[in-house]
Amino acid sequence: MKPIKPIRNEADYELALQEIDHCLDAASGSPERDRLEVLTVLVDDYEAKHHPISPPEPIAAIEFVLEQRGLSRKDLEGVIGSSGRISEVMNKQRSLSLAMIRKLVETFDRPADVLIRRTGRSAAQVLTTCVSA
Question: What's the pTM value of the predicted model, to 2 decimals?
């Protein structure tokens, strides 16, 4: 077995991933399993620094929760407001209010920081805002 080395670049990263694949079926308590654990920590650290994953946009996060739980937009009526308000929010025509965010956090047990992020607006919405100003 080769010694475990720090992951400093993409080539090291790829080698570590290959080694992880090789060790995946290792028996618990074996040297290969210990190697797997160490390599996993190194890969996690490298990915956090070089391949960070941004949290989803608020609307995408809401849509994911609805899909995950087999719910529809209609199920947001007691959380966000009327069907018209839900449509405005989900179509990114209106931002989530603090009260909506609180209800979403309570109802779906999701972290508030994802819902607090600014929702991306389409180019058409930006253009409309600029023209009407």
Answer: 0.57
54: left (phi over 0), alpha (psi -120 to 50) or beta: beta
Separation of alpha carbons 15 and 7, rounded Å? 9
Q: What is the pLDDT of residues 86-112, one digit of tens each?
A: 999 999 999 999 999 999 999 999 889
**CA angle in degrees (0–180, nearest 5) for 19-21-23:** 70
Residue 73, pLDDT above cutoff 90: yes
Instruction: Report whether 79 contacts 103 (CB < 8 A).
Output: yes
43 confidence band (pLDDT: 50, 70, 90): very high
Give the Å distances, CA to CA, from 12 to 2, 35, 65, 67. 13, 15, 36, 38
Query: How far is Cα 92 from Cα 120, in angstroms, rounded to an integer?
Result: 8
CA–CA separation, 88 vs 94, rounded Å?
A: 5
At residue 101, the 3 state secondary structure works out as: helix
Residue 120, sorted as left (phi over 0), alpha (psi -120 to 50) or beta, turns out to be beta
